[in-house]
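Section 5.1 Outputs to date
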Amino acid sequence: MSKVLVVTTSLRARSNSDILAERLIAGAKDAGHEVEHVSLKGKEIKFCVGCLACQKTQKCVLKDDAVEIAEKVKNADTLVFVTPIYYYEMSGQMKTLLDRLNPLYPSDYRFRNVYMLATATEDEKATSEKAVSGLQGWVDCFEKATLVDSLFCGGISDPGAATNKEEELMEAYCFGKSTL
């Protein structure tokens, strides 16, 4: 049994990415994984100031919710980042969180497998490529970790529309159940 941390990054209430994340979580739990979900909604996450003190101390000088999230990331076996696609890239709040996870770089982090679930209004295959590439860049900094897979669910625009997307809901469930 793997300890899975799912980090949802949409700030919209009842977002499409959150709806699909719920199905992914259900699939992962049905596969026997221990799953924890962290949403960035209502969290204070400041921008990294680039001081690099964390490389010596493994602690960030900034005091906000990113510190607690980083501890959860550090202690998970598997990470799943869930993001809406904004302008063909991961959400800004996801990128800000990834930057703030810098204290983990020199640490004895536990995670090995990283996944991404992305949603967008646009439905072209290439829509999520830059977001996946951005996450790959972060994963590349952690030599014991691998970006294993990603799932893109496009063509979902109106708030809550994912509720009626049976195929995408099943894809997210199966991604959680058989992939993680």
